[in-house]
Amino acid sequence: MNKSKQSGVVLVAALVMIIAVTGIAVSLMSSSTLDLKMVNAAQESETAEMTIKGDAELSLRNAMDLAANSPLIKGDGQFTDAGMSIKHQNADPKSTITLFNEQTGPEETPCPRRFAPTPGIVCNPLRIRASIKYGVGDKHEAVVQSGILQEIGSANQ
Predict the structure, then answer these.
(1) Are 157 and 119 within 8 A, CB to CB?
(2) Using CA atoms, how far apart are residues 124 and 154, in angstroms rounded to an integer?
(3) Distance of alpha carbon 37 from alpha carbon 125, whole angstroms
(4) DSSP assignments along the chain, one per residue
(5) Total-model pTM
(6) Could you report the per-residue pLDDT of 104-121, keeping only the tens digit for each?
(7) Of 4, 26, 46, 81, which one is least surrounded by beta carbons within 10 A?
(8) What is the 3-state secondary structure (H, E, C) of 65-80?
(9) Euclidean distance between CA atoms 150 and 154, whole angstroms
């Protein structure tokens, strides 16, 4: 075969194939990078939510451990500060836990009926708001709202 008569079609075809394969590889790599970012964000979100749920539980337990000395526990059917809230020390310094006493005045709150009401038992509603900032630069925030009804004996019975 004479070298002067070759036109280089194979070379052009090989270059086109290399460019196509390179384009596919770059597309797959950017796709997998995006997948990694999404998985990391979901993992950070789940970790933040579990952290604040644990901190909220810890704060509530600490308030209950104070028993009669806790400002959130109803005493003698009266509150000096209606609707008060207190902040608690948290396991994670990025989280903020606030316990709210939802009692709005000196009157007692009847408990909602489940089976049959028990005479002399009233409820003290406590609400917990837990939040934490997470992510790069703490630009995301997870918030959990929860609460309990504390069943206690009535001071008026």
Answers:
(1) yes
(2) 10
(3) 41
(4) --GGG---HHHHHHHHHHHHHHHHHHHHHHHHHHHHHHHHHHHHHHHHHHHHHHHHHHHHHHHHHTGGG-TTS-BTTB-SSTT-EEE---SSTTEEEEEEE---SSSPEEPPPSSSPPTTEEEEEEEEEEEEEESGGG-EEEEEEEEEEEEEE-TT-
(5) 0.59
(6) 655 667 777 766 667 777
(7) 4
(8) HCHHHCCCCCECCECC
(9) 12
- How many Å from the N-terminal Cα to the C-terminal Cα in the chain? 114
Task: Give 12-40 pLDDT, tens digit per residue.
Answer: 999 999 999 999 988 888 778 888 888 88
Q: Which regions in the chain score pLDDT beneath 50?
A: 75-82
